[in-house]
Amino acid sequence: MNMPSDTMDREAARALHRQLTVVDGLQYSNWDRAIFEQLREGGVDAIHVTIAYWENARETLSRIGEWNRRFAANGDLIRPVRAGADVRAARDEGRVGVFYGAQNCSIIEDDIDLVAVFRELGVFLMQLTYNNQSLLGTGCYEDNDTGITRFGREVIREMNRVGMLIDMSHSAERTTLEAVEYSTRPVVVSHANPLFFRDVSRNKSERVLRALAESGGLLGFSAYPLHLGDGSECTLEAYCEMIARTAEIMGPEHLGIGSDLCQQQPDEVLRWMRNGRWRRVLDGDEPEPPRWPPQPAWLRDGRDFPNLTAGLMARGFSREEITGIMGENWLRVLDDGIAAMH
How far is residue 252's CA from residue 332's CA, in Å, rounded to a whole number? Predict the structure, then answer.
């Protein structure tokens, strides 16, 4: 008996997915063993985990200490990543490689020496801003974008020197374009979508997309509902069509996944992300208190990553393009961007 074509397509997608090296370019989940097991079930080989939003240097050290405890308790499922080769080693071992990133520059406070310190501790990426104006540049929710500051230019040079990727996911347009201009190494947007897919401040214009590609960098596509056309009701087909249209702008070699999954996080964490320590109440046009929106049905947790491979296959991406988007493009950028300069 012949299998129906849709069943054959699903089987072919799952077979391909098992052969891929899958990298998720950002998650901020309430980590526990069940989540690590889901990632392994979904064939995810490495994840970029957020260790700071508004945390200062001392608080960020505690976040890294918490990860050391997780590695000790779950060493059969996860391992730290100190170089790009560790991602492939994690895949071969049947574990999930974990590398750190900060969604704000608050971790370095006003001390440029802390860039090298945190790079030595395994921080591969740092955003120059998180929504607001920072000491380095302008966040995407500010009314006036004044670009990269004097301190920001110094930090970009230091990040380039020590091998820490510049992440502009939450930055305003001028600031993002200037970061690309000043950086001598690839710049990434680890988790956002094109502005044409949903017109929100967090998504990126075609000008930014082209600049990222020209830098040798990467856009990690977000599955967070507020970044998606039709929000939580966004279909996998629409998501993959967005990826296809972006490939025409940037080239498929500059695309990856940055799911922005925030699994099992209580609503209080969302308030911390929005408010930090800098304001007491939310803006009048935001819900009170904030609530996590439901994830689209095709990417609820780590087990659903094979759906992305299937969606890209159905849209007509080649095996080579899917291999890149699902992980190899992230690995190339890591290899290029995190080696220290001599």
Answer: 13
> Which residues, 6 or more positions from 236, have their beta carbon under 8 angstroms from its beta carbon?
296, 298, 307, 308, 310, 311
Whats the size of the chain, residue-wise?
A: 342
Assess whether pLDDT exceeds 80 at residue 208: yes
Residue 169 lies in a domain: no
Query: For position 3, what pLDDT does the model report?
Result: 43
Note down the domain range covering 238: 19-107+185-275+282-337
Q: Could you tell me the sign of the dihedral formed by the alpha carbons of 134, 139, 142, 147, in that order?
A: positive
* Residue 235 within any structural domain of the chain: yes
- The answer to whether residue 43 is domain-embedded is yes
Predicted TM-score (pTM) of this structure:
0.94
What is the tens place of the pLDDT at every residue in 268-322?
888 888 888 888 766 555 556 788 999 999 999 999 999 999 999 999 999 999 9
More confident residue, 232 or 2: 232
- The model's pLDDT over 91-105, given as tens digits with 9 standing for 90+, comes to 999 999 999 999 999
- Structure tokens given for 28: 């901020």
What's the one-letter identity of residue 40? R
> Does residue 62 fall inside a structural domain?
yes
Q: What is the pLDDT of residues 216-269, one digit of tens each?
A: 999 999 999 999 999 999 999 999 999 999 999 999 999 999 999 999 998 888
How far separated are the first and last CA of the chain, in Å rounded? 62
User: Number of folded domains in the chain?
Assistant: 1
Q: Is the dihedral of CA 109, 115, 116, 117 positive or negative?
A: positive
DSSP H stretches of helix in 183-235: 206-214
Distance CA 98, CA 84 (A): 11
Q: Of 248, 254, 249, 260, whose CA–CA distance to 315 is shortest?
A: 248
The Cα 262–Cα 260 span in angstroms is: 6
Alpha-carbon torsion (103, 208, 144, 113), positive or negative: positive
